Protein 1
Amino acid sequence: MERTYQFIRIARHGDHIGTIQLNRPEVLNALNLATMDELVDAFTTYDADPAIRCIVIYGNEKAFAAGADITEMAEADSVEMLLRDQFRKWDTIRRVKTPIVAAVSGYALGGGCELAMLCDMIVASETARFGQPEIKIGVMPGAGGTQRLTRAVGKALAMEMVLTGRMISAYEALRAGLVNKVVPVEVYLDEALALADEVASMPPIAARLAKESVLRAFDTTLEIGLEYERKNFYLLFSTEDAHEGMKAFLEKRQPKWQGQ
Ligand code: CAA
């Protein structure tokens, strides 16, 4: 039986997809500390389950998440924020090895945009709006916004979004390279699940190592990144799936993945 949470809902989709729904609709899924704890628990539980090959996180049509919960920060001082160390939770999600797809509809703002960017791919509904509006409440992004947004969309647009708080539409996000695809709101979750199904139909160890290698491109030199990629490539030759995949190709049949 799936465990139950207060602020999120989890479910299985087929044999290999774990879903997480943010479930604080009354505050547009604002990410309070308790929600982040539940997210960390759900992500790490899925990540430890060999049957789960892809994770899909979503909110509702109106909001993926409208940011960190402002009510929890309004009275805090620097020392309290430092000791609270809330972004340690985000680091845990960053280390999840299972590929993650975010299905975004409505607002993905502040920490909501940062959470979507922490995922590996984003499927957006036509109504999705992405933004880093923290400056409008006197602060700035704190969960990776200045770094991941800049890497995703480039300096010009990132600077504009971070300095003015302007939200961008789903199509602007698509043009800027922030999201993978934009689809009608009625099907955004189905499309995200279909993308997750496609990832889940791949050999899982190769998918994990490939994810790790792509992410490495963001925090290392080309030289070290290439070395890292090469080691992972060689490592896959110890898996049964690599031999099955190549053999199946040569025998002109579909491969049967063992996940080993
Ligand atoms: N934290 C706490 N509560 C929030 C919230 C947030 N980030 N975003 C929305 N809510 C609450 C509202 O206070 C409101 O609650 P009440 O009904 O009790 O008044 C409810 O959600 C609905 O919101 P609105 O009435 O404001 O809805 P709207 O449709 O008029 O506006 C919005 C939508 C433009 C998204 C607006 O809610 C908004 O600007 N939200 C704040 C966005 C923001 O600043 N996010 C950044 C937070 S800081 C951060 O994320 C730091 C970081 O880097 C980690």
Note: DSSP finds eleven helices and ten strands in the chain.
Protein 2
Amino acid sequence: MTSPVARPEAGAQILDAKMIVGGERVDALDGQTFDVVNPATNTVIARAPLGGAADVDRAVEAAQRAFDGEWSRWPAVERGRALHRFSGLVRDHLEELSQLETANIGKPIASSRGEAESVANVFEYYAGAANKVFGETIPVTKPGLDLTLREPIGVVGLIVPWNFPMMMASWKLGPALAAGNTAILKPASYSPLTAIRLGELALEAGFPPGVLNVVTGPGGTAGAAIAAHGGVGKVAFTGETTTGQEIMRLAAGNVKKVSLELGGKSPNIVFADADLERFARESPYSVFDNCGQDCCARSRILVERSVHGKVVELFAEATRKVVVGDPTDPATEVGTLVSFKQRERVVDYIQAGLEEGAELVVGGRPPEGPQFATGAYLLPTVFDHVTNDMRIAREEIFGPVVAVIPFDTADEAIRLANETPYGLSGSIWTRDISKALRTARAVRSGVLSINCNSSVHTEAPFGGYKMSGIGRELGMHALELYTELKNVYIDLG
Ligand code: NAD
């Protein structure tokens, strides 16, 4: 399966996207651009500036100017009000943002609408949090008064992936701006359009120029320049684990604060006493949502052997019912992968699964029909009789592929769940609350759910153990990622 060359649609208008630097809509300094492609139609829909190190320098200067200027004198409550206006503007432009995202990455329109709504909710949450970032007084041994101050770090670099472009941006922007930092947001090259629109809406919301800058361009140049820049005090990154490792190396130069949300290989652990019908009804979405391009995807089903056959049958039946189709159709549940290149990568994994002896139960190929001919579609795919040492059980596929692995005892389930370098999320299905809690305590993951698949709550911490990341986004904990803690001791003598 090869990647066809994308071209503009005859007669269609191509969006001339610009970066946002110091409140201005600008091209890259050297004038270069890159094509932005709709993966469902394989057409070029926009041209975006191909930013590089010089553009990052310019953005860091603008962000530093903003940090030193008016912004630093804004009381926290004013930052909160601006975030509230930002949230309102996202709601006002919900349909526009959703259509843009769907056209850009092949995400079903219903999911894009859900994502845009969640962005508005995240900004609303941090609007309320802005004036709740405070220190403490500490009874130290000496007789004076000891107090702590929570202060913004300064210029922060926010590097985000293409699978949830707006949402990942909001998880970083919300707490960063609430805490009084200025930011440079770099979207992934596949998905620059909603980040640019967020930059424009931030200006409309009244954030001073330079508080939020958006630099588009490749990770290896623009992204690396942000991660290495001496003027950036912190880098927050979401993406692949290997990129996260590179960011840590680049950030070492000026000992930047680093927070990382990386890959996953999360388990769905199904015990024999679980509500198996409910598991099968709800769980296809835990791995096939966003075409499997989800860091929290439950891409391994660990199932107790006595119900293995029944669970595979129920899950396969539910998977066949998942509606794959045109991302712009509100009934579509699974659209396209982000690109043909990504589809090739996933198809290679399907091939590896077959070669390693796993049994293909559902999918494993693109859907048939003329309506699927132009897009990077792939059917939801279920492999049974997988062992934890196969590549499809070990590596993050980032596509609509799930591996079913049977187990005999709870201890074995926990061992298999933890036998991965990742530790992001997971679910536990059982009617026995003690077993559920024992398992939840033993699984080395940052976010777990019991008898459901939800991983993300705006108000609760989100992040990974082990090679799934460093730090916790969302909730009040995220503010710690964007503040320095200063201790001040006052001699009262
Ligand atoms: P990626 O690592 O390829 O790219 C992410 C971002 O980093 C992009 O903006 C990219 O341009 C930039 N980048 C790439 N190389 C860089 C470098 N050398 N220096 C600086 N920046 C660089 O990831 P992706 O393919 O866009 O996203 C998919 C990955 O993201 C998956 O592994 C997925 O699990 C992970 N993810 C994790 C979470 C989480 O919260 N844990 C959420 C979503 C996605």
Note: The chain has a mean pLDDT of 97.
